[in-house]
TrEMBL record:
GO terms for cellular component: plasma membrane. It comes from the Bacteria. This is Cell shape-determining protein MreC. GO terms for biological process: regulation of cell shape. InterPro entries: Cell/Rod_1 (IPR042177), Cell/Rod_MreC_2 (IPR042175), MreC (IPR007221), MreC_beta-barrel_core (IPR055342). Residues 45-82 form a coiled coil.
């Protein structure tokens, strides 16, 4: 050993021995390497599975939120349209949400989320962005019930937008029919019927219905005229409550000044 230390007689032998034994060392350590590799890969695979599941959950949540945003955008568009439908109306107005639908054989009514605390009153006109919906028939503290335009118990004075012919439109449960119009009356399919303002219950000039059928028989004194409501009676989620316009003192003074100038 002293000679090997001083003169390196066994260096070549040790190198040859190490070269020969290195594969054995590798084989002996191979199970440990395989075990370490397997642990790392199994952990990585489980992590990937967890991450994939988490990403799927996040995507599902984001899709649900996106659908809600789409619904909110549509609802906002409907509300803007609803408010825009009464821009020329000078009285107070209030949006109400439909809480429940009570549609029976002889009754078509909606329950709204506005009541006497919001100054809702019986007989109050209700419209949507397309036309007249109906009127309030019952009021509680926080809710109210409205009868729809096509209810059999409901009737509304109308006028033909084309020629001004006046009539009464009454519901039949689904559509409207015009009562007691002689066969000689000038009315056609496609005519737009507006609220006439008679009776001072509904404001003048709101769309009510469009004529879809006109039948005139010589054996009958009156024409059979069927009209379809323009309002979204079956699909509306929000409606607009209208109050009669009450002119202020300033408005009255301005009108008096204009009259005196004339």
């Amino acid at each position: 050993m002293v000679l090997d230390y001083r003169y390196g007689y066994l260096t070549s032998a040790r190198k040859a021995s190490a070269t020969f034994l290195s594969p054995l060392y590798y084989l002996a350590n191979l199970p440990n390497e395989i075990a370490a590799w397997a642990d790392n890969n199994i952990i990585s695979r489980n992590d990937l599975i967890d991450q994939n599941r988490q990403l799927k959950d996040e995507v599902l949540i984001l899709k649900a939120q996106n659908q809600r945003l789409i619904g909110l955008e549509s609802e906002n568009a409907r509300l803007r349209s609803l408010l825009g439908s009464s821009r020329s109306f000078r009285g107070k107005r209030l949006i109400a949400e439909v809480l429940n639908i009570d549609s029976q054989r002889f009754s078509n009514e909606l329950l709204l989320n506005k009541g006497s605390t919001n100054e809702v009153f019986v007989g109050q006109p209700v419209v949507d962005s397309e036309g007249v919906m109906g009127q309030i028939v019952e009021v509680s503290l926080t809710t109210s019930r409205m009868i729809l335009l096509n209810d059999q118990k409901h009737a509304i004075p109308i006028r033909n937008d084309r020629n001004g012919v006046r009539a009464i439109a009454q519901g039949d449960g689904q559509l409207l029919f015009l009562r007691h119009l002689p066969n000689t009356t000038d009315i056609r399919e496609g005519d737009l019927l507006l609220s006439s303002g008679l009776g001072e219950k509904f404001p003048d000039g709101y769309p009510v219905a469009k004529v879809i059928s006109v039948t005139k028989q010589s054996s009958q004194p009156y024409a059979q005229i069927i009209a379809e409501p323009t309002a979204n009676i079956n699909t509306a989620n929000h409606v607009l409550l209208l109050w009669p316009y009450m002119p202020s003192i300033d408005d009255l003074d301005e009108n008096q000044i204009e009259s005196s100038e004339k």
